[in-house]
Every structure is written in C-alpha cells, then in structure tokens.
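Progress report, Aim 2. The chain analyzed during this reporting quarter is listed below.
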Amino acid sequence: SEQLLDAQAKLGAAWAPTVDGTHLPRHPAVAVEEGAVNPGVPVIIGGTREDCLADIGAAATAEDFVAFAALPIDQGGLGLSMDDARKARRLYIGGSSPPP
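Predicted structure tokens for the chain:
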C-alpha cells in the first residue's frame, strides 16, 4: 500500500520480494498484471527476522539456536519457552547443526 511505501521511504528501509526464477518466477505485481494468479486465493506477503540464523552467526550450533529461540524478545531472541525452542530446533534443523 502507499502507506507502507511512504513509511519505508521515511525510514530509509525497503522490502521487496526476491524473484529467483524458481520459487518466485516473477514479481507478484507483474503476475497480477498478467493475470497469472488464482483469483480468490489469499496471498501472504511479509518478512520476519527469524528467517535465517544471521542473528546468531553462521557457525551456530543447534544448541545456539535453542538458546537464541528461548531468549526473551526484548533481549533480541524469539521469546519461546525452552520446550518450544527445542521443538523448533527439531522441526527446522532436525536437531543437528543449521544448514549451510
């Protein structure tokens, strides 16, 4: 929306989809213009800071991930309980070290 674009401009920040030709073959706005969408199917667009492990370092271990996930949000973590942090580790990285 225009509000989002205006706010991004004021902050000097920007977000845009990454068109990679595989998972996202074209920009969503182009797909809509071309009619290459499924009408009536909701689309979720957003970004999250926990999409990667950059916050804890490329050499992070599975236990580093658990510690980060259990760290309170106001301290830069995800604020999960220790049990949920361990579940997330099993779901996302299979209990081993993070993917390269």
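Confidence is low (pLDDT under 50) at residues 95-100. The helical segments are 2-11, 28-34, 62-70, 82-93. These observations will guide the mutagenesis work planned for the next reporting period.
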